[in-house]
Amino acid sequence: MNVREVVLTDDPALQRLMLSNAGYTRRVEGGALGADAAREVLSTLPPGAGANQKWGLGVWEGDLLVAFADVIVGWPDPATAHIGLLMTDGAREGQGLGRTLHTALVEGLIDLRTVTVMRLSIVDTNASVAEPFWKKIGYIATGDVVPYAFGTVSSIARIWTRPLVVM
């Protein structure tokens, strides 16, 4: 296994990974994965963020992408890195791939010397699956909530953070 950047030309590998974890898409979008979902993940930015802030990182076994993270560095403020998505291959859940990828993210962000906080949002419709993982690696709910609407899902997303430290 190796950890390396995931770029737009890797969209077929990411699409395969996302298809392997179809339950996530059903929980947060309400339906099946779209044909261009990977390309959208690799190119979509939150309001106020620039393309130079977007970082995709993956765990690869040869040409097979088995875990992926999408991070916006310096968003929503300069000291924060927001994880927009962290996904593992559906057949490989519970094998430590998410933790391995998160550790690589932390190490890469520490090297930047600008980020002190890691942030993410958990959509209520995915909370029962996502919260245990994020709690295990030190994230805490802030109490902040934002409306969430995507596909047929209308819900709330809760903000979680943790300090940027190796655990």
CATH superfamily of the domain at 2-117: Gcn5-related N-acetyltransferase (GNAT)
Number of helices: 5
As a percent range, the share of helical residues equals 25-40%
The helix/strand order is: EHHHEEEHEHEE
Total beta-strand segments: 7
Main sheet: strand order: 1-2-3-4-5-7-6
Q: How many angstroms does the end-to-end distance come to?
A: 21 Å
* CATH architecture name of the domain at 2-117: 3-Layer(aba) Sandwich
**CATH topology of the domain at 2-117, what is it called?**
Aminopeptidase
Identify the overall geometry. Answer: globular
Domain N-acetyltransferase: 1-165
Organism: Arthrobacter alpinus
Protein name: GNAT family acetyltransferase
GO molecular function: acyltransferase activity, transferring groups other than amino-acyl groups
In short:
With 167 residues, the chain is an alpha+beta fold. The protein contains 5 helices and 7 strands; from the N terminus they run E-H-H-H-E-E-E-H-E-H-E-E.
Secondary structure topology:
Blueprint: E1 2-5, H1 11-20, H2 22-29, H3 37-43, E2 54-61, E3 64-73, E4 80-88, H4 97-112, E5 117-123, H5 127-136, E6 140-150, E7 153-163
Parallel strand pairs: 4-5
Antiparallel strand pairs: 1-2, 2-3, 3-4, 5-7, 6-7
Organism: Arthrobacter alpinus
Keywords: Transferase
Pfam families: Acetyltransf_1
